[in-house]
Amino acid sequence: MRANTVRPYRRGRHGVETFVNGFHIHYIDEAPPVYDRTVLLLHGWGAPAGTYRLIIGHLSTYCRVVAPDLPGFGGSEEPKKAYTPADFAAFVEDFAEAVGITEAILIGHSNGGRIAIKLMAEGCRFRITKAVLMDAAGLISKRPFQYYIKVYSFKAVKRAVTLPGIRKLFPGAVEKARKKFGSSDYQAASPVMRQTMSIALKEDSAPLLPKIKAPVLLIWGENDTATPLSDGRKMEKLIPGSGLVILPGAGHFAFAERWGQCSRVLDSFLKG
Known about the structure:
- Helices cover 39% and strands 19% of the residues.
- With 272 residues, the protein is an alpha/beta fold.
- It folds into 2 domains: 10-140 and 204-271, Rossmann fold; 145-197.
- A hairpin with a 2-residue loop joins strand 2 (15-20) and strand 3 (23-30).
- The protein starts with 9 loop residues before the first strand and ends with a helix.
- The model is unreliable at 1-14 and 147-158 (pLDDT under 50).
């Protein structure tokens, strides 16, 4: 699928808006007067491009940094159907082509890391020279027992209201259960994006990791509960030649909680 030519119609402090394959897309594109490398930053679930201003502001002093709001997030249009990780990866390829990226350093946080893994392992139309995966999603982790109680309680309610007469007796039961048992990200999402999240969480990226050829730096929060440190350690073992940096005391947004250390690590890897 070939991307449309970029047609920005608003540029300002908050970025650029354009169309890519019919999608209304918001993105940030910042660069110094002279640069020799481009960073393509892929955000996490529920955290659009503007969330990463620390990274963008710092790296754009010596790199071009392009950070799109992926379809369904931030200022970008929502897809008409549920997206798979492969759909997001295809969109990133089209977007990169549209904004003139032929070679890039990938940075992916959380769900953006899941997409970056797919692009690196399965190949894409632009060259990936290096990648940084920050508290990346993609592995199916062992969850605490309470997690399964919540999931199966919601599924039980959802099944029950399909029985004859039950839906009329208990209107709104599914939505009430979703609010009680669902995550904050899930509750905040539209029906299409809920389906999208469900598809992503069921897909295991572990088989893709040994196929990655580009140099990869893993940056992880020691106390991340969304994508636990055990995921980072497993990725380090499965991605050839990768290295893991653990930010002490930090959670899922470790780059923001330990920005001083994170910025030094990024500079060393990107400039090296």
